[in-house]
Design brief:
144 residues, alpha/beta, Ribose 5-phosphate Isomerase B, Chain: A, five-stranded parallel β-sheet, 6 helices, 5 strands, 17% strand, binds D-ribose, RpiB, ribose-5-phosphate isomerase activity, Ribose 5-phosphate isomerase B
Amino acid sequence: MTVKTLAIASDHGGVELKSAIIELLKDRGVEVSDLGTNGSASVDYPDFAQAVAKSIIDGSAEAGILVCGSGIGMSIAANRFPQVRAALVHDRLSAELCRQHNNANVLCLGARLLGEATALDCVDAFISTEFEGGRHEGRIAKMS
Ligand code: RB5
């Protein structure tokens, strides 16, 4: 998909990476909604995963990005929402595959595990890679 509208959020572990991602997205012409957090104070990642999931569900964003220390908590929390297919990725290939095979609509990143360049490469792949459809359609339908 070529993403046009995207909601992004992080916990305190992902604030700096979130800023770098927003800059990249704006450079690419994506309309970004920053749902926080915006400081170093400790917050609970499920609250931010829920905010991004709500944006997907109400249609205000086509896609989402969630950043926490490991990306694990955000991916667990986001996938509690049936309309969300959140993928925790670690490199460009996994970011491409989550779009091609899984039609992921939320990308999860671990700011404490990935370097910034790798994380931005994942974002670039996520916003520009199309779902392949075909044999993958039925598999996704089984999860909804
Ligand atoms: C916060 O310390 C950390 O637990 C969180 O960012 C995330 O890694 C949870 O999965």
